[in-house]
Fold these 4 entries.
Entry 1:
Amino acid sequence: MLQWRLCEVMRELFFPELKYYRLHKMARSIHLNAALMQEYRRNPETVMNAFGLTEEEKELVRSKDPVRMFNAGVMAYAIFYLIWEAEGWIYRPPEEQTLYKEQLMS
């Protein structure tokens, strides 16, 4: 019985339930497909609808808030693909990136 519980704990720690599967699938596809990334930049709503995102998932993507997304359970790689790559934040200087504004202002 103890071994079974240990297996459950390990599964929860290392293989958590993927709450936002469609969002993660879209992020990975955008990362791998340059044409899809361009389409996402032109019209993110069309791409989100094509992947069947729920309204909750769409709201997270629209927020462009990496901290909010991470706290909601979106994996870090998906946040990187959607915000830093697809939105082009990776090419901006740190002071223009949302995460750094508060730190630089204080």
Entry 2:
Amino acid sequence: MGEDMGIHVIIKRKVKPGHAAKELVPLILQMRVLAMYQPGHISEETLCDREHPGECLVISRWETETDWENWTHNPERARIDHQIERLTGQKTEYHTYSPMVPRADTEKETLQQVDCIIAC
């Protein structure tokens, strides 16, 4: 499964609720705005764990792994990431994933994919 289906990058951070969490939001927004202008960037979504409020997850979608790698070497991104790690007191975790099956935008497409998997 490949590069033509894009990649998803899961970014995990932990932050103590309160003052540090309030300082984290503007940094994440700065990073998101910068990412939006990078070649190959598709989207970003930032989530907080409902059961563990200090755990945050960013799902970042990129057209290719090369696009993602180029973004990781951006000096401005590195500067903001360093600020985030200082604030959280922890290294940010990065994990890259590729889709197992092509994305289906409709129920019909999903059912067609399931039929194909069963038939194979």
Entry 3:
Amino acid sequence: MIMKKLLLLMTLILFISFSKSDSISLAEDDLSQVQKTERTSFVVKGNCKMCKKRIEKAALSLKGVKMATWDIPSNMIDVIYDNKKLELNDIHNKIASVGHDTDEAKASEDVYDELPMCCQYRNGSPH
């Protein structure tokens, strides 16, 4: 009877120790997943809701961008992205490729000129 209790106790101790090590490794996996993402904000020139849709769509089209929200009044975009999949400069370049200047990348004249009049911010008259 004592042997059965001792065996049961040892089994229970082993079970608990393995359970804790699994939860620790899961926590480490979660931590490494969190560390892969970065949050940043930067200026993107634009004027209106059409600009907002175009800017956010461009950023979100990149594999690795988790969230992109552009604020019209401040012209600031808030981005969360996976820095293992792309660099911040990739986001700047993608946004510039659809006609919107950022701190780091300028839209080409050809692309900018194709923007609707309400979205053309270089003339100094935001809507």
Entry 4:
Amino acid sequence: MIRLNAPGSDGVASLSTVWAVMEAARAGAADATAAARGFLPAAGALLSGGIHATGFAVGYLTTFPAVMLARVVPGNNAVVYGLADGGRAGIDLARSTLQGASLSGSSAAVPKLAAVEA
């Protein structure tokens, strides 16, 4: 709280002190306004960068092990045939589920899914 002295011999000094305090408050308010205007774009950029980094990490951490596993497993064996059959079964189940969920019931409403060839 600012206490003002009663006007007297130092009345001019009190007035100049009040004036200096008011000018400092105005300058502080202007600085706070400028900082607040710069906060939202900076926060948006930080959030966008975080989302991008998370998406990159999820994509990398799922794709890299899958590719490494695909390169490690030899091509002509029961594991590969089982994976291919499971993929085909998943595609068939997805296709039948989508056809059952479509209102028209026609296969034209269901997109063609890539088939896995053994």
